[in-house]
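Give me structure tokens for this 906-residue protein.
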Amino acid sequence: MSEALRTLETMAGAQLAAEPLPTPERIRALLNMLREIPLCSGVTDDEAEALAKQFEERHGVTMTIGAVLTYDEYEPWLAGRQAGIVPYFWNRYRRLLTEKGFSGQVLAKTDEVTDRILGLLENPLKEGSWDRRGMVVGHVQSGKTANYTGLICKSADAGYKLIVVIAGIHNNLRNQTQRRIDEGFVGRDSTRMLSNRESPIIGVGNYDQTRRPVTFTNSVRDFNKTMATGVGVSLHNLNEPAVFVIKKNSSTLKNLIEWLREHSAKRGNSKVDSPMLLIDDEADNASINTRHGSGEVSRINGQIRELLDLFEKSSYVGYTATPFANIFIDPDSEHAMIGQDLFPRHFIVSLDPPTNYFGPSKVFQQPNSGILRPLEDNEETLPIRHPKETQVWALPESLKTAIRTFVLGRAIRVARRQGQKHCSMLVNASRFTEVQRQLRNEIHQLVQSIQASARLNASLPTKKALLDSELKALYDTWKNEFEKTTECDWQTVQKHLHEAVASVVVVEVNSRSSGALNYEDHEKDGMHVIAVGGYALSRGLTLEGLMVSYFLRNSIMYDTLMQMGRWFGYRPGYEDLCRIWMPEAAEGWYTHIAESIEELREELRNMEAANATPEQFGLKVRSHPDTLIVTARNKMGSGERLPVSIGLSKRFVETAILKWDSGSLVANRLAARHLAENLAKVRKSLIAAEKVSGGWLVSKAPVAPVDSFLAEFQNHKASMITETGPVRAYIEERKGSEMKEWDILFASLEEESPNGLVDDSLGRRINCQRRSSGEKSNAGVTLLITNKHRVASRGVEKIGLTNDQIAQAERMYRERKEIPAGAAPVNYSDRIYRPVRERPLLVVHLLAIGKENDNLSTQSPVVAWSISFPGTAMEEKLVEYVVNPTWLRENYRDELDEDEMAGDDD
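Here you go.
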């Protein structure tokens, strides 16, 4: 990027950020005006138009304010003090965000939401002793650090004197967080602040240095007593706020607590009197006190409470994108959760991301997103389950393809004038450092080979260039990945290949490696890196410009799996180039978890409207079906059989795991036939069923045939949520009122498929749905319906609803999301239709099990079922399931072993 273009971008960006929604005409008029200035006169028409389109994309981004729950005795204070607060630190930070490209609308909402969170803390000038506990629920890689940096700035403006940020359990994440606090709050490079050298001015320090916060840690070293004492500042007489950025480590916390006791307590008083704000980043990780967890987890939890107790005045805010552990605390006792030490009893805030957020819903819930690639060829060279002694003798072809896709994406970004932007690839395929080292070396050799070919032959005419095997492999990958989806033809890509790949480096990222992701050192030309690692790449750490991810890990644990999704974030100008390789089973879990988190957020919005408290929300969310797995995981060491109360209101449950023995298969086909026969007694025959897009629908059927079908169906014990007893008990309580009538769908494809299975045993011709068996199926024993554990097809939950009900549900969703009229078509999740459903929907599936091209016409169908439960107006009596940790170990042994040893690479 030329200096003239850089200057034009900076000047125009600052002016446009002050305008809420600048029009395309306004953007171009401003650019043309600024090009008259000598400093910007060298910008060409093409460069100006490309910049205009970039600003259009940026300023078309909008953002909504999320939901908030507070406890009953909350007393607002901020509005009364607002006029007397000088926003010195906030104004500097807002200006920094402007220069980083935040749109005016997003800046305004960020200002509003950080005010909201600040107001939920205690007034730092309030006399006496007090403490506040709250939680902010964001999204993975959505800007939580930017949010709490803004909160730190505003809390310092309001009078908080001591700020502690607990930033992850690894040094690289703590160091990264310190650099961001330096840039957004301190204004100086903390690496030099504690030395004799003058610290260089960075970030907000470039705008105003009138006030200088004190920092007791720096961007290369965590807290230690000697360094902190050397600062020579008393925490009782602070003229400026002081900040500590520490690792979530027991030794570090111990040292900080001891140092505070030694240096900061008032004479005759064991507590510090300065008001303190504690930001607990990744609050679900190691901060939770699990009764049967490791001693380290409980120790850190106790130390955080001890740290808070050192202060007469303290506010605690836990930030997390995966709040399962925080919300599902101690689910074996109705009241233990309320008294839990770090439970966010005073407030919970849900952050909504801007509309340009590249998140789970976009990646996993939008059909045909074009982002995901199945990973199926790894078992010979790099199996998911492998010992630490594994020898990596070759790379899977899929990984080679992913690397070539990254190189091609870089070339396209160079063509788009983004060549000097950060660009990263993630390879997370093993938890073992030795395997990571070997992977890094193999990838390095491939990259070197591509670099040599691009240097020697990319400038040749295409026909000659493609005689080079590496360039030919790149060309074949381009045809598969980008020919039909990007504006760049092969000649353009080939032209930029050498520039794209020459600067690419391969770095190993773990506690034993010398490699590092120092993006700050490459701001001018960008860092272009393939990062190979394991757990150190899985939580909190941001990979700038992440474009391609290769993910080969096992875990069913919600927080672990979602936090491994480093590919979430913001991808301005290159979202169409992003690709993710992962096993199909992992894709299924991600899809399920994304839906579960959205349900949790939806519940938060509903309870905000009902003026519920955080405690009431916690009790409600604990009844989510996912509690079965979260609870069992948290209680693995207990060996207990644990009763868990589950609510089925507005839930969708299905038999994704089935018995596969011949007796059970026959019994379940007979159960389906008896259902049809029982319906025939009240409806004369199934012929009365209505043909709909998903099969044959019987509307307003009585509950008795449904109950008989469920009682007769042979459920697999591994399909816990469809356990017959609890499901029937839930229906029993409502069968005289809300569940007196049912919609029953006998699912059928629209047309008979070649080599497909057709069944007429139920009185109607049914074209059976084709499903594959999951890789962990056990022939003759257990059938997992696909690796994704999904039975029903998307859109099934609309069946049985009227057009008016469908329109109402979709309108309510658009209003909640503040989607403007005329926006792009919305991808509606099935769950949005449950609130308007008046009758429960039972879907009976007749499945043909086999691969895509198998001839399935002669087999007998496998019966499965799904139920979409509507909401309930009754006081919901929760249904009790029993979680046996042995069950979890038997069914998810591989994933649990993997997750329990997730830290082996650090």
